[in-house]
Amino acid sequence: MGLTASTTSVAGQSMTSENVHVKSACTGEAGAEATVPEEELQIVRDALFPHDLRVQRTLGAGSFGSVHAAYCDQTQNDVAVKVIDFSPDDLEEDRRAFRLEVSAMKALGDSDFIVSHERSWMNADKSGGYIVMELVDGQDLEEYLDQYGHRIGQTDAKRIGLRIAKALRDMHRAGWVHRDVKCGNVLMFTESLSDDNGDIFSAVKLADLGLVATVGSKVEQVAGTLDFMPNNLVSSWEHETKPPPPRPSDDMFAFACVMMEVMGAGYVLDHWNKTRRRRIKDGKSVERLRFPEDIAEKFHIRLIDALEACWDDDRRKRPTAVEMVSLLEELIEQQSDTKSQASILTDADDDNEEDDSTSIDIADQNEAGCIAERLKKRRRHD
């Protein structure tokens, strides 16, 4: 059971033309709240909540439930409360999915990269569930990219990717598959935007475990967001066949799609998805997704190769989350060392009074050096 329903999101429910997704931990940023009538909010306030929880406002509402900001008197913290309405037609399945989500959140409680669980319960007649978790004061990555995407540089893109990769590493090591990795499920805390160390993405977390599954488990239907799924899962959806067991490699395919959007090539992903959906429906082969050269030449060739390998139809060839974490940490460290050397050289030049706003990012420039030529050779080889 998931909390997404859109033209490209599936979780067993009917496809709709409306985007009505609800995050497992919604952001508390002004203007991001859903418009919910006061009488409906009052019903939530009067529901079977513990007395120490005071619901304050609704953050989001969708076809499967809602998320509310609340204040916990016991812990004296702001929290998010996810209210899930189980479908009368699929009560047992929804209850099972609820228990899985809670189990995953508890099992991953020590991870610094996944939204944390505080407590959960079902109502008296078990027709719905409640999950209390940390409230994210900020926005999701999809909203951030809509607002600032053109300003994200190479270093910040890699830092965002590193945080997501670490979240997936923790999930996969614990035996879980997220199944709905996308920008809308990556949350960014406001505090991360003003980090004293210059790492503006120090508090980025993966959210919404509503479609989580154990590795290799039996599943009856495709779940997640089609635009971020491997071809075999899209095919299962289009042709209504039973999907294969969930694998960590499914998440890595989606991770690379998220990175494509973060790195400024979301338009390529959109076009590719429209084409591949049509071809898969017609039973035709699909060309592998690739970065456009104007984007690829800006980043290290090893990162481009690793991300493109995540889109291989052979899941065994896709990098693991552990391998992506190792690569991103190495590239970020290399860039940091290069910038430090460049800073020393700049400080030694007393005659250089160039304004910071016009300074050249030497690390980024070095990183891109000679990559274009190697990229052309690689593409000719492909």
UniProtKB/TrEMBL annotation:
Which annotated residues bind ATP? K82
Kindly indicate whether the keyword Isomerase belongs to this entry: no
Q: Where is this region: Disordered?
A: 338-366
Q: Where is the Protein kinase domain?
A: 53-332
- Keyword terms, alphabetized: ATP-binding, Membrane, Nucleotide-binding, Transmembrane, Transmembrane helix
Answer yes or no on keyword Cell wall biogenesis/degradation: no
Here the segments flagged for biased composition (Acidic residues) are 347-358
Q: Where are the transmembrane segments?
A: 252-269
MF GO annotations: ATP binding; protein serine/threonine kinase activity
**InterPro entries named in the record:** Kinase-like_dom_sf (IPR011009), Prot_kinase_dom (IPR000719), Protein_kinase_ATP_BS (IPR017441), Ser/Thr_Kinases-Pseudokinases (IPR051681)
Show the PROSITE patterns listed in the entry: PROTEIN_KINASE_ATP, PROTEIN_KINASE_DOM
Read off the PANTHER family from this record. Answer: SERINE/THREONINE-PROTEIN KINASE TNNI3K-RELATED (PTHR44329)
Q: Under what name is this protein listed?
A: Protein kinase domain-containing protein
Q: Name the species this protein comes from.
A: Spongospora subterranea
Query: Taxonomically, what lineage is the organism?
Result: Eukaryota, Sar, Rhizaria, Endomyxa, Phytomyxea
